[in-house]
Amino acid sequence: PFDVLVVGGGPSGASAAIYAARKGIRTGIVADRFGGQIMDTLGIENFISVKYTEGPKLAASLEEHVKEYDIDIMNSQRAKRLEKKDFVEIELENGAVLKSKTVILSTGARWRNVGVPGEAEFKNKGVAYCPHCDGPLFEGKDVAVIGGGNSGIEAAIDLAGIVKHVTVIEYAAELKADSVLQDRLYSLPNVTVIKNAQTKEITGTDKVNGITYIDRETEEEHHVELQGVFVQIGLVPNTDWLGDTVERTRMGEIVVDNRGATSIPGVFAAGDCTNSPYKQIIISMGSGANAALGAFDYLIRN
Ligand code: FAD
């Protein structure tokens, strides 16, 4: 059996595996797609100490760093079941069952798409998902935020301080965000809120030039000219496969303590699949390191 088996090969999983292997214990990493979300990222400007890099380049460095150690890498493999017996067992979709004294879940998350024409086409060409990452690219420009929940309104408030104008597009008749956030939003001079609006299309040529929505009351179609669209309708953790094993929040995020421990002894979690409030590369790497140290601490006590 492994001492530490990491499930997920994004920034948090790579970091957890390196921290574990540096303790000289038997470490493995299973990943559906090594690199994780950063494989879909173009420019990265907030990975501190690296002024600018690109996702695939950072993913290649992660893999190179992991390969410096005696880590059993199982790429292109999906975990489908976790069970705690004498060891923690992880069953893969290919039928193999891996056993480990401890497991670190780092299966990440994915942004929910609006699924309208133009969204996929203009990803990284005006369509963005992360205001902390891409907000500064839209300085002085007009943008829309799709989604009026807490994340959408937080994004709109954040962006309003950087861009020229923000249009919030909410499908329902009311914003769902907390009222303190709504109050703050409505106090800003450069924000317009459009409710009851169904996004129909993100338009553009080589990059985004506008958004078309349908007023759900009048069924009239409207077009707003702008250069950026932030989709903020939810970040879904990749944790469905865990069923009712480890405790998760209503949103499906794995609940961890400050050592990355979950509700099952010996099972730890890190990164975007957990209930950590902010989802960023540097944060997920930190939490991967934290969970690996948590797992090591568990191993020497059990
Ligand atoms: P992920 O990166 O999601 O990795 C999850 C890993 O788990 C992957 O290897 C995946 O294949 C694997 N996996 C999932 N399910 C299973 C399973 N059942 N079995 C086996 N393996 C599985 N952050 C920044 O700090 N700066 C940025 O500029 C930035 N830009 C971004 C741009 C985009 C378009 C996106 C989508 C995200 C961006 N982020 C950015 C966020 C950042 O990418 C994430 O916070 C970070 O990748 C989270 O790392 P993670 O390891 O927790 O999860």
UniProtKB/TrEMBL annotation:
Residues reported in the UniProt entry to bind FAD: 3-18, 262-272
Reaction catalysed by this enzyme: a ubiquinone + NADH + 5 H(+)(in) = a ubiquinol + NAD(+) + 4 H(+)(out)
Disulfide bonds: 130-133
Highest taxon above the source species: Bacteria
EC number: 7.1.1.2
Keywords from the UniProt entry: Disulfide bond, FAD, Flavoprotein, NAD, NADP, Oxidoreductase, Redox-active center, Ubiquinone
Positions with a binding annotation for NAD(+): 142-156
CC per GO annotation: cytosol; protein-containing complex
The FAD/NAD(P)-binding domain, residue ranges: 2-281
Enzyme class: translocase
Functional summary from the UniProt entry: Transfer of electrons from NADH to the respiratory chain. The immediate electron acceptor for the enzyme is believed to be ubiquinone.
Assembly behavior: Homodimer.
Protein name according to UniProt: NADH dehydrogenase
Originating species: Heyndrickxia oleronia
Lineage of origin: Bacteria, Bacillati, Bacillota, Bacilli, Bacillales
Gene: ahpF
